[in-house]
Amino acid sequence: MNRRRGLLTTGLATIAATAATVMLATGAGFAAASAHPAVSGNETFHLVTTEPSAARYVVIASGVFTAGGVDIAGNTTDVVKLAGGGFKIYHGYALKITKEHVNNATCLAVFGATAKFKVFGGTGAYRGISGTGKATISILEIAARTSSGACNPNATPVVNEETIVGKAKVTL
Length: 172
Fold this sequence. Notes:
With 172 residues, the chain is mainly beta. Helices cover 6% and strands 52% of the residues. An 8-stranded antiparallel beta barrel has the order 1-2-3-4-5-7-8-11. The protein is elongated. Mean pLDDT is 83; it is low at 7-34.
C-alpha cells in the first residue's frame, strides 16, 4: 500500500473529486461553466480515474459554479482545466488514512483517506477563485500477484478505480 499512499499524495492533488456517474469518462465532452449568482459558498468537486498512475482525473464541480473537465495531477499541486478557464489545487497536506485492507485470497485491495486542500490561481471565468476544503479519497483495486501467487499491493494493479470527493468553501 506504500505505492497507493504515494499515488494518493499525488492524486490528492487531484482533488477536485468524483462519482462513478461521470459522463465525461465516456467522451461526452466538457460542460461549460454555468453562470451562478452566488459569489461565494460551497463547492463540491467529484474526481474519478481508472488509470493506475492517477495522472489525470475527470472532474465535475458543482455549487457556486457547475463545470466539468480534467484534473492533471502534480506532486503537491494539480491543474484543473474547465471550459472557460481553470485553477490550481494545492494538496501537499498530510493524508489521514481511514482504511487500508488487502484480501490475500482474492487480492482485492481497499484504501481510504482524507486530506485538506486549497483552491487558488484561477484563469478565465475562474480568475480570483480561492478557498479551502477537505477531500475523501477511495481506491478499490485488484492487486497484481507475484510469481509465487502472493498479492503485491505495491505493484501496478491489474485494475483500479479511484474516486475523490472534495468539499470546499470558495469565493469566486
